[in-house]
Design brief:
It comes from Salarias fasciatus (Jewelled blenny). 49% of the residues lie in helices and 7% in strands. It has 28 helices and 14 strands. Among the domains are: 206 residues, Clc chloride channel (Orthogonal Bundle), CATH 1.10.3080.10; 154 residues, CBS-domain (Roll). The chain is of the alpha/beta class and 802 residues long.
Length: 802
Amino acid sequence: MTHLHPAGIKPGRTSCAVSRYRPPAGPRRSGSHRRGFVQNGVISITVTMRILHGRFVQRFPHFLWNNTAGMNGSAPTRLVDPLEDPLPGVGTYEDFNTIDWVREKSKDRDRHREIANKSRQSTWALLRSISDAFSGWLLMLLVGLKTGAIAGGIDIAAHWLTDMKEGVCLIGFWFNHEHCCWTSNETTFQERDRCPQWQSWAELITGTSEGAFAYIVNYLMYLFWALLFAFLAVSLVRAFAPYACGSGIPEIKTILSGFIIRGYLGKWTLIIKTITLVLAVSSGLSLGKEGPLVHVACCCANILCHRFAKYRKNEAKRREVLSAAAAVGVSVAFGAPIGGVLFSLEEVSYYFPLKTLWRSFFAALVAAFTLRSINPFGNSRLVLFYVEFHAPWHLVELGPFILLGIFGGLWGAMFIKANIYWCKIRKSTCLGRYPVTEVLVVTALTGLLAYPNSYTRMSGPELISELFNDCSLLDSSQLCGYSVGNTLGDRPAGPGLYTALWQLALALVFKMLITVITFGMKVPSGLFIPSMLAYYHHDWVIFKGWCSPGADCITPGLYAMVGAAACLGGVTRMTVSLVVIMFELTGGLEYIVPLMAATMTSKWVADAFGREGIYEAHIRLNGYPFLEPKEEFEHNSLAVDVMRPRRADPSLAVLTQDGMTVGEVEVSNSTDYSGFPVVVSAESQRLVGFVLRRDLLISIDNARKRQEGVVSASQVVFTDHAPSLPADAPPPLRLRGIVDLSPFTVTDHTPMDITVDIFRKLGLRQCLVTHNGRLLGIITKKDILKHMAQIANRDPDSILFN
């Protein structure tokens, strides 16, 4: 027996051990072995009917001490029953570890089966069964209510602080600009936002709002408030909740795949993320609150899960709730409950059963209703940029829509490469060591360049609302600056419109560049949606024959909406959910085809430059152990090519089923290996099972504390029956209960594409490789990710966790 090569990965902040912890339960049932073998090139994974029907029993660390009077002359020692005396730490997971999906789902099935059996015995047990079945829906109700309330508060606070950069309301400083002028009778049609109750900082300080000095005062106050908000945001994140920075969606995707990140969905993260999200958006940085709201919703769900034992004690069940919470986050961000459900299904969820679909729909409905009841924007809508178009689109416009899709795909591919390049610079240089300085510099640069242009000065939702607006005869927007005419279709473009278009073109370039360096900073940040604008002239040749005088030829707001969808689709590679979100924004069925054409074109063009979206690119950048379900494995390698140890490596560290002492096992446990295969003997290498290092440590430590006679010379036995020992020998320590007697195995000639599918669909963390029943090596999730990175000509050492 040797202990020279790891059966897992070293734990820590930069690499993490594979751990499989077993919760307390009764003795193991028989018939649980499953085997993999290859015959004539065809893989056959043999799994017993108990596995197929969810009867995979729980393994519980229990200790049977063969300490009889006939052996050493003393009275029999009481057996330790973990059901009565559970061991602390067993059944839980360490930080930066992947959960055991098979065990968690099996544990939930056993729990449900036990509740169902007891419900037939008494009325009280029946009521408990009903309560257990209803608890999931109650939890979804609470998640929707809490997230909707928080989202409403974020919207109100962000709108107020954004307006505070430009002035203050005299009748109440807590009113934003729009609310302050609602009750005023002195507003005009051309200057509907000006009223005596609202004064700019120049008016308060100098007494006038005109002139160069007043402009400079307003400019400086704008920069002051922007820097103050940004400084507070980054300082709070750095001091109290480092996990509150960024979008959160890459980490949410990784967590939903089974990874453990302690504290990422905790209460401090929720509190700081909520506060700093308001500050970051109000500072004027080129970021949005859509992604962070998904993180906020998942934090709410995770905290509420601890109120229900069914979800508190089962990591797989908790991830079903988190999948529904992701739908809730998008529901309150875009005012699109159905789009939120599809977003969770298409973009973030790793395991999405039908039951989760229903509960996601219900939770998104509750959240949308809660936000609508709060009415944060005062327009009876869920979002500030809700629009409603009525003009039909023409078939000839399909070409421009496809061109917008091409632009969106090119922009998405360029943005991902540029942002990842900048993030690598941030991580590898001294820039990453000074996050506060970076945020302040970017905020100052953004404020200096944004203030002179009214379209970059306004907040993201206000800009999108302006662009999505459909011009009417009474509209005073600069984008509707047409010369006087009887009908809107007959009015030629005026000088104000051309000025607005130049400003908008500059705003587009500015937003494209500044968003690259803003996304990924140490503040809560979502992706700003770059928007496009079109204007029209019905005398052009291409419009003759289908654009009659006096009629609305095209809808500029529709082009802005299609351009925004194309750009967001190129960055995130969303398709179905994005179209539904935009449909829910507009409320018009007739615009589904333009949106579908632009979104699909955008994805095709962006995929030509790389198949990763922005979230997958950041997952890879951070080294998270995420097996992308949409990524195909096309290499012809076999399991023997990926397993460890390799041909030139030392042999695999194993434990024998008997013959080892407690001292020898403790020496093995002094390593950083995550677990050890158990074999019949070091010579035969016939596989018996797999035992986790953490379970061994807990078991031996518990035995030394609770049992007399356990010493370093005590023999450790992983079998049902202890071997015969001399009369003066210490009692053996039987640890068969902590051994996984049915570890997933494949043969050395199993194709790696089959192995990767097994890891994806069963959520495995490690798989043993055998040849004719003889142990050869082990494949972990990290090994597969490193192999895939090597095939793609990427650095295998970039995979930090397992």
